[in-house]
Amino acid sequence: MAPLNLPPFDYKTKQVEGKLYIFDLLRRKYVRLSPEEWVRQHIVNLLLTHYAYPKALIRSEGGLTLNQTQKRTDVVVFDRQGQPFLVVECKASHITLTQTVFDQIARYNHVHRAPYVVISNGLTHYCCCVNHDTAEVQFMDDFPAFV
After folding, report:
1. What residues have CB less than 8 Å from 117, skipping those under 6 apart?
2. N or C, fewer C-beta in 10 Å, the chain?
3. HEC string of 44-60?
4. Using CA of residue 139, residue 74, residue 64, residue 67, what is the dihedral sign?
């Protein structure tokens, strides 16, 4: 897998029928290792180890219904009251983070209504604070602290 602009971590992989799998700490199982999954696992590790987000409040590959269509949010972090706090959209490192990616997370967050959103391709990361009352979006220098 491609090197990323995220802290390295100890991960477990295994091969099954010639395909590589990585152990997902959140789902507690091995999942197929794709370039996007590689980024997602690094983001989850970052949230757990560098920002001390509680593991029990992070959901990976959670479903949501958008315009009567089932979608999957890469990562959602919930606050201590069970409300969405941070929504993360991960892309493979070769995918450029364009307006289309921002539009995708904006659609997902229209459902979740989290105050923070992040998009990352493992090399570049954008974190934004979203005011749902005014529709104002502010870019942040870092991920939000979990409170």
Report:
1. 86, 87, 88, 89, 105, 106, 109, 127, 128, 130
2. C
3. HHHHHHHCCCCHHHEEE
4. positive
Domain boundaries, the chain: 13-140
For residue 23, the number of C-alpha atoms closer than 13 Å in the C-beta half-sphere is 8
> Tens of pLDDT along 29-66?
999 999 999 999 999 999 999 999 999 999 987 666 66
- pLDDT digits over 104-130, tens only? 999 889 889 999 999 999 999 999 999
